[in-house]
Amino acid sequence: MPSSRSSSSRRHRSGHHHRHRRRRRHVYPKQTERNLVAAILGVVVIALLIAALAVKHWFKLHGGKCNKTYIGVYQFLTMGIEKDPEYQLCINDKVVIIMRSVISFIFMSIVATLFAFFLDIFGPMKELLKLIRRHAIGNVTTVLLCVTINGFCYWSAMLMEAVLRKEIQADFSKVVVSFEVGFYLIVAAGALSVIISATNLLRPYSSYEESIPRERLVEDWDELLEAGVGGPPVSRATPMPNLPPPPAYSP
To answer: Among 111, 140, 145, 164, which residue is least crowded by beta carbons within 10 Å?
Structure first.
């Protein structure tokens, strides 16, 4: 009797130790989906957008009485620039409003790209952040903003040409407003944002994190089976005390 109790207790301790060993062995790592290529390109996009804000050459003006050869975006941050005599023969109120909208779009592009950069560098696995990162929503927003900036710049160039034609010096004078470095920096930032979006949208994602709950379910079922087997065995040969004895044999 003591030997059977000691053997069952040893089986119970060994089963308990085995279950703890299984739990220690199957420690699931925290999953992340980093995209270092997209993060590096995102830094380049942010640098291009900041350089576009600081560069002095966005438009090159030729013809008319405007004494400005180059006009940059940062100049439109000056309050009352449309009343400045140096710019009255170059731009009008509509150009000022449009270019200030361009400045706001550039800042929005920087914020969207920076947000996408942090998602790519850390690779969070929360459902909402994972959805935003996998569908490259931040970079797609930057692409759309860059396209809008380019369209607004084309609109501004047309308006500036109209202003220059009003003060044309001679009938044969040629009025031209062309794009310079700042405009093409925005084009480059938009093109790189397209590449970043492709690296996230076309990337094959592993289903490892989806298989973890199944593995945990199988392990929990195994532990339940081990707990049932490790318990004290039920003897099937135990006689039932309340039954009457069998009748005597008669030939």
So the answer is: 111
* Count of helices and strands (H, E) across the chain: 7, 3
CA distances, 236 to each of 152, 233, 239 (Å): 88, 9, 8
Q: How many other CB atoms are found less than 10 A from the CB of residue 57?
A: 16
15 has pLDDT over 90: no
Instruction: Tell me the C-alpha distance between 62 and 176, whole Å.
Output: 5
3-state secondary structure of 129: helix
Q: How distant, in Å, are the alpha carbons of 128, 145, 224 from that of 111?
A: 18, 11, 51
142-184 pLDDT, tens digit each: 999 999 999 999 999 999 998 888 876 555 568 889 999 999 9
Beta-ladder partners of 71: 59
Task: Retrieve residue 85's tokens.
Answer: 């005599």
- Is the backbone of residue 123 left (phi > 0), alpha (psi -120 to 50) or beta? left
Separation CA 84–CA 77 (nearest Å): 13
Rounded Cα distance between 39 and 131, Å, is: 17
Integer-rounded Cα radius of gyration of the chain: 37
Which two three-digit tokens encode residue 1? 């009797």
pTM for the complete prediction?
0.69
What is the rounded distance in angstroms from the CA atom of residue 12 to the CA atom of residue 16?
A: 6
Note whether 38 and 116 are within 8 A (CB): yes
Instruction: Read off the pLDDT of residues 43-65 as tens digits, 9 standing for 90 and up.
Output: 999 999 999 999 989 999 987 78
pLDDT bucket at 242, cuts 50 / 70 / 90: low
